[in-house]
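Could someone model pyridoxal-5'-phosphate with this protein?
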Amino acid sequence: MGEVVSPVVPLEDDRVHGVRVLLKRDDLIWGEISGNKWRKLKYNVGALEPVLTFGGAYSNHIRAVAAAGERYGFATVGVIRGEERLPLNPVLAYAAGRGMRLRYLDRSTYRLKRTPEVLDWLRGEYPGYRILPEGGSNPAAVRGCMELPGEISSDTPFDVICCPVGTGGTLAGIAAGLSPGQRAIGFSALRGGAFLTDEITRLQHETLGHATTNWHLETAYHFGGYARTTPELSTFIEDFDNRHDIRLDRVYVAKMMYGILDLIASGSIPAGTTVVAVITGGET
Ligand SMILES: *Cc1c(COP(=O)(O)O)cnc(C)c1O
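Reply:
Sure, complex below.
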């Protein structure tokens, strides 16, 4: 997969109160694959082996794997949580249209997707397929995301970098790629996201042999939970679009951006700080 460096642009907004906010526009990398999904796949699909992976019916990761498979010419299987529903929703219709074979697992079996029993069974059904976990978060994905901080050139030094968190691979990688003195804040898009701290620690251990101490997770900005929204969040998205002509992804990015402005308003991110907000993807 080719090299693409996404732009960094300042956010001019009267709510930043002396904090310098820069947007790392990973949503502009390639329209077919949201930005962080591209980084996470980059070192996972290089060998162009067939890929089997897991996701919910609205998964951006499923979408991204299907798009990469068609573009680079490798076979893909999507193992989808729950029963088949016809007609397919837009994400699954898109995936099927890119040649992905869809396979459904009832919810209780899906929950066991990381167990040797289920993995061995799938290996038997799909011999030769590389198996990627849900959300694509594995050490190769962490390595892909580690490259992000280095792309923000040395003439724009920053103190804090923020990203949304679903499975935690993106935050694990970004934090691992920081220079001394910089830190990362992840914003959980899931309700009860505290378990993600262990998951991010595990991913860093698997990738680096140790976990870094330069990041933390904000768990209060989930707006009801994964893929949920509230009128307040919808208003925030409309207003941000009017001000900046950027449509924030409501599942992940809008929650992070709301959280950043809230931490600035409360003084948790003080004036004088330079913050990079990673726009990990666009509204699909
Ligand atoms: C998948 C996704 C995330 C979450 O990334 P994780 O590595 O799973 O934490 C964040 N933002 C966007 C736009 C995504 O599609």
